[in-house]
Amino acid sequence: LAPEALKSLLNRVVRLSAEQPALLEQSVRFLASATATTLQRDSAEQSPPLSKTELQAVAASVLGKMDPQHGGLAGVQKFPNEAALAFLSAMRQRHLNDGLAEAIDLQLGKMATGGLYDHVNGGFFRYATDSTWTVPHYEKMLYNQGLLLQAYSEAYAATKLPLYRWLISDLVDFLERWMRAAQVNGYFSAISADIGEEEGVYYLWNPTVLQQLPQKSLKAAAVSVYPGPGGTGLQGLLVERPESAAAAQVRAFLRDIAGDREKPFVDSKIITAWNGALLSGLVAARQSLGSDFE
Q1: Helix, strand, coil percentages, rounded to 5, for the chain
Q2: Most buried one in 15, 73, 88, 277, CB count within 10 A?
């Protein structure tokens, strides 16, 4: 329902509750009964669960489509494909196929250290415009953050890799700083890629700024750059060791500079399904980090 239609419906429910409570209760019982009947019918019509052999065949098919060098599903652009990651992660937990751990960790590692992740502000961009996870499309969506938070949390539970632990904490910190809608206890839906007509400009840097960074920190964090879109001469950052203390110094320096910049537009819609996906990610993070998760 559109917001106004939903508001009108809720107002009618409030009126009925005050003026005709018996009629409202009768309607509720009818809807509950109809829903239960539908669910029972759908349950009876469901196909039987896949066998172990069938699950292994599906996993093998997905693995056969993965990029063996850069991870993720092969293609000229790279999307995280969270559904495929979730399936492979479930199969990993059941130890059903060889090569699952390697494929999952290759993709997660490339995404965490490549251009898909914002190493200054935090958060995942929506997809990479190339096959190496280098140059992103600079839009950030809440559902990506939630689904990938769950993927990294499950991977950390399986591997205890420091990179995954750092990413979980940094991603949650980004969500609190940029996307939290405190007044309704939810999270905003998206952050725009553009400022005006310039894509990604908030996330790109003049080479003269980057030259001010301590070379020792750049080397220790294994920082490299890529050319930003549009031939502007601006550069984006790739950080091979983002969990390092040196990377934290680089982030602090650039965040201080970015504080004076115009920020991209934040879409303040609160989408229940996307918040639900994030809630699942937060639960997975709490389960994987235990008492260390705040």
Answers
A1: 55, 10, 30
A2: 88
Query: Residue 138 and residue 135: Cα distance in Å, rounded?
Result: 9
Rounded average pLDDT over 272-290: 95
Measured CA to CA, the distance from residue 211 to residue 245 in angstroms comes to 19
Angstrom distance (rounded) from CA 46 to CA 54: 17
Spatial neighbors of 16 by CB under 8 A, at least 6 apart, are 23, 24, 27
Alpha-carbon torsion 38, 44, 47, 52, what sign? positive
How confident is the model over 152-192, as pLDDT tens digits?
999 999 999 999 999 999 999 999 999 999 888 899 999 99
The pTM (predicted TM-score) of the whole model is 0.84
In degrees and rounded to multiples of 5, residue 289 shows phi and psi of: -95, -15
Using DSSP's 3-state secondary structure scheme, residue 94 falls into coil
